[in-house]
Model the fold of this input.
Amino acid sequence: MKWMIRPIACEHDPILFKIIRSNLEALHLDVPGTAYFDPELRHLSNYYQNEKAYFVLIIDNQVAGGIGMAPLTNIEDCAEVQKLYVDPFYQGLGFGKILIETLEDFAQRKGYKKLYLETHSNLKAAIHLYEKLGYTFIEKPPFVIHSTMNRFYIKNIGSK
Done:
């Protein structure tokens, strides 16, 4: 199995759209207040530009997942981890961890000191991974956009 991680390009959009939507459907999170209805979901490559970034996991020349990041103005020196999804065929093989570590390194090089993320209690494997990688559970912040999300985490990356 050959894999690589690269920045998103427009040809990745349709496959990522399917991966994200099918993951959310499988977890019964295809409801309002989740990424399922985000207007940028069909065109992530357009959305993740300038200060935002999205990294795509390619396995054997096929898009297999990705992870995004955008500045978070509500917390100083903080970016938000967004849309971490892996094709179910490749889940459980460590690619989620690789994607998060790639994003953490990138965010740190960009000068961010913290990373914030929102998730849902249905995403048990993701929660386990976040906690294993040092993300700390916090109370729901007042600025949450995805209202269905019910688990919130932050990680200090400033002293890596």
